[in-house]
Structures are given as structure tokens and as C-alpha cells.
Give the backbone structure.
Amino acid sequence: MILGYKVLYLGVIYRAMLTKKKLTYFKKLLNERFEELLSEANKTVSGMTAHKENLPDPSDRASLESDRNFTLRIRDRERKLIGKIREALDRIENGSYGICEECGEDISAERLKARPVTTLCIDCKKRQEIEEKVKGL
Ligand SMILES: [Zn+2]
């Protein structure tokens, strides 16, 4: 009986340690990605202001304009990703990180490694994609 409790207790400790280790790993991963995105965004901004010099050729201007649209689209994606990373870091802090928001199951470590900002397990993600396809028809 006492031994049983001890094993259970050790199991809980072990699981907590494992979770903490996993969270520390993903926190580092997310922070690195966050820093990367911020420095990319800064580069884009300084690049855009540097390019505003006089361009007499209209075709140069046109290509610069489409370059800028491209850059702005990228920045929009970066901005969204930065927001998602912030949310993921918040979830690490409040203890809901790595739990699927649809079914409440643990999201596999492999999936989190591939996509650390995800809030859905692979099954729910697949179901969501199918539902989106059906709605699109
Ligand atoms: Zn799920």
C-alpha cells in the first residue's frame, strides 16, 4: 500500500519533471523564433526606407512597388506569426501549452517540434482542414 503510493508519487514527480523539461525546450525554441522574426522585421523596415531614393525610370518604380507589396505581405505574415508565438509563450506560462484546444488531449512532441505555435492536435487539425474544404465547395 505504502509502496503503491510511493510509486504513484514518483510517477507524478517524474511526469512533472518531464513536462517542465519539455516546456523549457519549447520556450527556448519559441523565444529564438521570436527574436529571429523581430530582427527580420527590423531589417525589412530599414530596407524599405533605404530604397526610397529617387528612381527616374518608371519600370524601376513599378518593380520597387511590387517589391514593397511583397515585403508588406511577408511582414503581415511575420506579424501574425509573432502574435502566435506570443500566445504560445503565454500558454507555457499558464500551463495550457501543448494541450489541444478542441479535444483537450496532449499534442504530440513531434507535432510541436514541427509547429511550436499550434493549438490543435493532428487529428483535430485534419478534421478542421476537411471541414474547411467542405465549406469551400
Ligand atoms: Zn485534438
User: Anything to note?
Assistant: The first helix runs from residue 2 to 50. The chain has one domain: 19-49+59-135.
